[in-house]
Amino acid sequence: MGEIIAHVLEGTALAEGGVDGVVYEPGSEAGSADADAASAAVTGVAVVFLATQALLEQATALGVNLVISHEGLFYCHREDGATWLPDDPVVRRKRELLRRTGITVVRCHDRPHRCQPDTITAGLVEALGWAPQVVTHEPAAAVVAIEPMTLAQVARHVKAKLGIPYVRIAGNPELVCRRIGIAAGYRGGAGVAVPLIQAHGLDLVIAGEGPEWETPEYVRDAARQGRPLAYLALGHAESEEPGMRALAAQLRERFPGVPVHVLRDEPLFSVL
Ligand SMILES: [Zn+2]
């Protein structure tokens, strides 16, 4: 197991202020960053956006004992559940499941984001079928130049390519989009999106999520002032799952004897 964990975490370390590392090891009550999971034999790997209760149950049924999770187990970017909400019933039940099943969980967040290009962004662009249209890969986003499509057509395209039931848009559905910024995960805020729009003359930013009063409100004011722009929110998981799928493909290539599953939970939100 140590070899796979080392591969997954290559080039990143908690010492650098990141969040990657072994975040849950069986037998370790608190979960630990310097855990010694290395000697266990791997029965199977599950790669997930976030190790939800349902996906941990699925991983157990598949005989998996190593889960690679992009986001944290316990509802906070930097906390591991031992210090954050130690007495919470939901956290306790999740930890009980891990203890019972003997699954090791590794957080793999910073490493793929620090690759050049960012593995998660590149995976999303690839899944959208726009890899040949990439103009540039910036650290926090990619820019693509596509054949003109209306915002409504882009929304249909994105839903079909990612297999997701809905997206949210701000802007006119008839707006013709040619240059699009693609920002996976929590990069939909104005700090990333607005300079990107200006630097690359974008019509549209597609992001995982971000504060609603930042970029979407910027887009609304810009349109009112006569410069139509648009914003499309995929959802955080929806924007990062393709990149984790790409990471799983890398693992299969590197460790051909190990079963590597990609598990995806149901969409988090439903629209009523
Ligand atoms: Zn991410």
UniProtKB/TrEMBL annotation:
Under Pfam families, the record lists: DUF34_NIF3
Instruction: Keywords in alphabetical order, please.
Output: Metal-binding
InterPro entries in the record = DUF34/NIF3, DUF34/NIF3_sf
Per the UniProt record, which residue ranges are transmembrane?
none
Residue numbers binding a divalent metal cation: 70, 236, 240
Q: Which family does it belong to?
A: Belongs to the GTP cyclohydrolase I type 2/NIF3 family.
Provide the protein name.
GTP cyclohydrolase 1 type 2 homolog
